[in-house]
Amino acid sequence: MNNDPMLHDDSGDREISSDLQKSIEATIRSASRYVIPSDNLRPLTLQAARDYCSDKRSNRMLFRMIWGAALCCLLILPMLDKASWFGDSLASPSAYELEERAIKIAHERNVGIGWGLQEAFVQMRQDQAIRLGQAIQQDLSQ
Questions:
Q1: Sorting pLDDT into bands at 50, 70 and 90, what band is 72?
Q2: Residue 82 neighbours by CB under 8 Å, 6+ apart
Q3: Three-state DSSP class for 8?
Q4: How far apart are CA 48 and CA 71, in angstroms?
Q5: What is the distance between the alpha carbons of residues 115 and 105, in angstroms, rounded to a whole number?
Q6: Which is it for the CA torsion 71, 91, 119, 96, positive or negative?
Q7: What is the pLDDT of residue 63?
Q8: End-to-end CA distance of the chain, in Å?
Q9: Each residue of 39-71: pLDDT tens digit?
Q10: What is the pTM of this model?
């Protein structure tokens, strides 16, 4: 068994032996003659500490934002079913359907296709307003 105090395995359960403590202190004392801090050690250390704190703060903010987004998603998901139903009831006709309606109105009223398109658009907006009112009333009654 080796009796060298530097190789003594101390897991923290016991006190440091006096021989080991003296050896550590001697090593530190001897290193003080060789290790000389540079002039910019303090500013570099402070900057490293600031960067570390900034990174921790950024991580906390990111974590909070992720939790906030997750919470918003959890609150919004139940409403998506109602929103999709609400959107379907207010769906606008396709361009082809609007064109068909414009042509029909133009022939019925004997006007140009431009005026027929304008009238078809006005009718579409009126239909949407009626459906919106009905959808709101139905949603309030539920």
A1: very high
A2: 139
A3: coil
A4: 34
A5: 9
A6: positive
A7: 97
A8: 85
A9: 888 888 889 989 999 999 999 999 999 999 999
A10: 0.36
Give pLDDT, residue 142.
66
Which amino acid type is present at position 26?
Answer: A
Q: Can you give the length of the chain in residues?
A: 142
- Give the contacts of 39 (CB within 8 A, at least 6 positions apart): none
Nearest CA to 2 out of 24, 27, 20, 15 is that of: 20
Q: What pLDDT, on a 0 to 100 scale, did the predictor assign at position 93?
A: 77
Residue appearing with tokens 């009905």: 134
**Sign of dihedral through CA atoms 125, 126, 128, 129?**
positive
Angle in degrees, CA 38, 57, 73, rounded to 5? 155
> Residue 85 pLDDT more than 80?
no
Query: 91 to each of 103, 127, 132, how far by Cα in Å?
Result: 21, 10, 10
Structure tokens at 18: 């006096």
Q: What is the token pair recorded at 64? A: 């909070």
Distances (CA, A) of 123 to 19, 21, 117, 128: 99, 94, 10, 9
